[in-house]
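#struct-pred
JK: can someone run the complex with 1-O-phosphono-alpha-D-ribofuranose? inputs below
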Amino acid sequence: MNAVYEKLQQCYESMQEKTDFKPLVAIVLGSGLGDYAEEIQIETVVDYRDLPGFPVSTVEGHKGRFIFGYIEKVPVVIMQGRVHYYEGYDMTDVVLPIRLMKMMGAKALILTNAAGGVNDEFDAGDFMMITDQISTFVPSPLIGPNLEKLGERFCDMTGIYNDRFQDVLLKAARKLNIDLKEGIYVQLSGPNFESPQEIKMCRILGADAVGMSTACEAVAAKHMGMKICGISCITNPGAGITMKPLSHEEVQETADKAAPQFKALIHAAVTGIAEL
Ligand code: R1P
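RT: done, structure tokens with the ligand placed:
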């Protein structure tokens, strides 16, 4: 058996020994957004480190555990923290959690992140619905022998972010009086923040927000046929827009402040998606 698939299968079996919970919606919480997971009706919690071979989060603000439970009767699995490529993991490990959640039954995926604003009309604390992405600055998680059980070799990347899910988000935002921005997310490898010139480059490429996660996860999820939506919390204007130095503390603080609106938006997104 292929080593990547074998590891996935092992993690799946180990998870099955801990819980047979079947989530419908999977949610990944980005930097500083993790507290939301503790506010749902929790059924089971599984620490990443209790799954042999599973990649463990090393970044501040990423607790590193799965929370299984219900958001208004909708069965969900929440990743309270993710792993990033810059932490030194192989790309296939970075997306292993996404693949595992799909194997457990999740059909829909809500990806969230903290991101820098490339579009200079965005303010810190704004939310951006991801309409498309640029993932080519990091290796594709699909490199290597194709995992036929998961998806096809040459996977289509049109409509990564599902149209109907986007409608749900827009409708929810209107109802909640949230000025939801829309735009393109670009993933760079990190861990260094972008230089002012790199922010300019991202703008030339058509990006509106920049981060170090999410796009690779969306590629793996699309490969498996998951329906995806994505929300970036713009935690700071990108380098060079203001001359203020960037810091992970600021990223976490801004995400923290945006938490109440974020919570309401995710809540509405989950219930709206479940009704489709
Ligand atoms: C930088 O502050 C960190 O925040 C973002 C960046 O990708 C980077 O890891 O984290 P998430 O994308 O996990 O939200």
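RT: quick notes.
The beta strands are 25-29, 41-47, 65-71, 74-80, 108-117, 127-134, 181-187, 209-211, 227-237.
DSSP finds eight helices and nine strands in the chain.
JK: thanks, will look after standup
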